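Readers of this paper often ask what the protein records in our data store actually look like. Nothing more is needed to write down the fold, since each code stands for a local backbone conformation. Below, we set out a record of this kind in full and without editing:
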Amino acid sequence: MRVAIAGAGAVGRSVAGELLENGHEVLLVDKAPTAISVERVPQAEWLLADACEITSLDEAALERCHVVIAATGDDKVNLVVSLLAKTEYGVPRVVARVNNPKNEWLFNESWGVDVAVSTPRLMSALVEEAVSVGDLVRLLRFSQGDANLVELTLPPESTLAGTRVGDVSWPEDTALVTIIRGSRVLTPDPDDVLEAGDELLFVAAPAREEQLEELLSTRG
């Protein structure tokens, strides 16, 4: 998979390193000469250019990319890169970094964003996830399709503890995608039995989050 990352700062380089380790082809784009540190991510392609310029994106061959990640520290730049990637080059998947939570409402499909990642929100969510049992925690927002990635740790008193996944009447527009049990990551199967302390990850419509939380947290 070919991935272009706009922004070669700490965030961009870190993401590039992870993707390269997983066998993907990565191009890092940044207009600041001081950001071009090839020795830090030598396996990546590097391009000194302004990712907000069509000529730069042409040079980057964005039309050949499967994913574009707008990872600069400037929300305006990330929005422009996302819009150009989606509308001018038809990139299938556009992920954008949100630096200021006040701007999060802008990062949606109208700006070409498929997934918006708010670092402050994610840090807050991870803190909540670490201390919350029985409370729904929103981890990520998927702009396309109007859905969120949410997590809930099943409390010991939940009526669903000991219930087969296939026997649960999940709310509409909700999908259980992963069960984290201790150090294991389980792909949900209808015959899997839910256990107290399971971390359950769902993709759910925002309108269903309250209903989902009530279902999972209901005490016996």
User: Anything to note?
Assistant: Helices lie at 10-21, 54-59, 75-87, 119-131, 209-217. The longest helix spans residues 75-87. The CA atoms of residues 101 and 121 lie 7 Å apart.
